[in-house]
Amino acid sequence: MSTTLIATRNVSDRLRGFLASSLLEVGPGIYFGARLSPAVRDRIWSVVEGAWGSETEASVVMVWRDQKLPCEHAVKTLGTPPVSLVEHDGIILTHRHAAEPPGKPAIP
Fold first, then answer.
1. 89: which strand partners?
2. Residues forming a β-bridge with 92
3. 65 in Cβ contact with 75 (< 8 Å)
4. How far is CA 49 from CA 8, 63, 68, 77, 104, in A?
5. What is the pLDDT of residues 83-107, one digit of tens each?
6. Distance, CA of 57 to CA of 47 (rounded, Å)
7. Which of 41, 58, 100, 107 could be cross-linked to 10 through a Cys-Cys bond (beta carbons 3.0 to 4.6 Å apart)?
8. Do residues 90 and 68 touch, judged by C-beta distance below 8 A?
9. For residue range 39-94, what is the model confidence (pLDDT) as tens digits?
10. Closest C-alpha among 77, 74, 107 to residue 90
11. CATH code assigned to 2-80
12. If DSSP states are collapsed to H, E and C, what string results for the chain?
């Protein structure tokens, strides 16, 4: 059993209601489960994936501890989070693309 955190952005009230019924909502769109078994975590994720067809411009990120991985955390995502998740030297990092300065063309 491990701690699980789900962060949502622009999801429907229906999906928020389901997550709030399954996990503790510790902040707007942030859901926490202290001791979820892998089976329960997978079931919650399958319900989120099943409801995903009606979501637009939304994202869901789920993070939990997995001691089998070098960084000891696993991540699943749906949609487009505002950051990219990358693994570097066994650590999961977030990468936010810098905005182009006004008047400067983008370099391909």
1. none
2. 87
3. no
4. 13, 15, 24, 10, 39
5. 677 777 777 777 766 655 556 555 5
6. 19
7. 58
8. no
9. 999 999 999 998 887 667 788 999 988 777 776 778 888 887 666 777 777 777 77
10. 74
11. 3.30.70.240
12. CEEEEEEEECCCHHHHHHHHHHCEEEECCEEEEEEECHHHHHHHHHHHHHCHHHCCCCEEEEEEECCCCCCCEEEEEEECCCCEEEEECCEEEEECCCCCCCCCCCCC
How much is the pTM? Answer: 0.74
What's the full length of the chain, in residues? Answer: 108
- Angle formed at CA 92 by CA 9 and CA 42, multiple of 5 degrees: 60
Tokens 């637009």 sit on residue: 56
Q: With contact defined as beta carbons under 8 Å apart, do 33 and 65 qualify?
A: no
Radius of gyration of the chain (CA): 16
